[in-house]
Amino acid sequence: MHIVHTEADGGKGGQPLRIINESSGMIQRGHQVTILCPETAPLHALAREAGLTVVTMPLKRKNVKNLQLLRQWLKQNRHAIDVINSHNSADTWLVALANLTLSNPVPLVRTRHASGVPRNNWTTRWLFRKACAHIVTTGEALRHQMADIGVPMAQSTSVPSGVDTQRFHPADKQQSRAHCGLSQDDFWLGVVSHLRPNKGHSVLLRALAKIDNPRIKLAIVGEGPHKATLEQEIVELGLEQRVLMSGHRSDPERWFPAFDIALSPSHDMEGVPQGVLQSLASRVATIATDAGGTADAVIDGQTGLLIAQRDESALHEAIMKLHDDAMLRETLAQQGYDYLCAHFTRECMLEAMESVFSAAAAQRNRS
Questions:
Q1: Are 129 and 120 in contact (CB under 8 A)?
Q2: Strand pairing partners for 272?
Q3: CA–CA distance from 281 to each of 19, 143, 257, 339 (Å)?
Q4: CB 278 within 8 A of CB 328
Q5: Which residue of 15, 237, 288, 366 pairs with 10 in a disulfide if CB–CB is 3.0 to 4.6 A?
Q6: Contact at 8 Å (CB) between 106 and 99?
Q7: Which residue ranges of the chain lie beneath pLDDT 70?
Q8: What does the buried/exposed string (b/e) look like for 54-86 if buried means 16 or more CB atoms within 10 Å of the residue's CB?
Q9: Which pLDDT score is estimated for 367?
Q10: Phi, psi at residue 323, to the nearest 5°?
Q11: Those residues with Cβ within 8 angstroms of residue 65's Cβ, 6 or more apart along the chain or in another chain
């Protein structure tokens, strides 16, 4: 198959990484992949760095000029394309409208990465139910949002972003700490994510400040617009000696095994956070909030501890519960790892997406 991905602008978080990871896997499976996105989108540079075929296309705004440019490209190439996978609202609308004007339009599959509730009006219902051959969500909670606006369950599939278990896997804690520059004898909490307010770092810092144990420390891995605010909060809470801001790291797979507990305190609109899946793949005890589709992977008391969003008291209690019970940490880490390997690997994702794309392409051939 020839699969075309479109993206208006998915920022620097998990969305572009999902597209790249999935595209690379599809190419390895023998498919052709092309990515259409604006030059200003982070995906544009990231995909080229990954060696993927990228076509610069202005998709950030729904206007006549952008529609004409996309329609022209699709008209020239539609017979060589089997399926289009869109990832944002603007590019989905542009593809849908362009398809209306073309004979033999290309089947459109929409992937919803965020858990924001879609508008329930006739235009949105038309877009998802009629213009899209299928809807992919990155978590079951997002899939039920689609059902709430009338998308049949048979027309949607939850396909979380799978983890590359060749990259993220269990490793020796002492060696990992030596690589990351973390002290060997302290109890390390870790969070790996983009630094923006809804990722919940501030809640985590307040929970840590309630813990009167200087040996319990926190490593924050990532960059983003919330960095300066977090640095100020660390000082205000008196946590300078207990919190490490490592900045962006190109080797997060070396950090997860260094943690005693990995955390995802998010209250963001997302599917299943990549950091959660990566910590499970690294066989590390995990605490996460019930944001988006996180509960698909973190089953409370079985594969990790799942707590309410923005609840620093619950977060504090969960940290202390795992700190005080090494056997529980080990049990959750192993059960989380086993569950990840069965349900959330890169291969699981590729199998599911290949089935979705094949079915969508078959619809076109039958029509």
A1: no
A2: none
A3: 20, 24, 10, 9
A4: no
A5: 15
A6: yes
A7: 366-367
A8: beebbbbeeeeebbeebbeebeeebeebbbbbb
A9: 58
A10: -60, -40
A11: 58
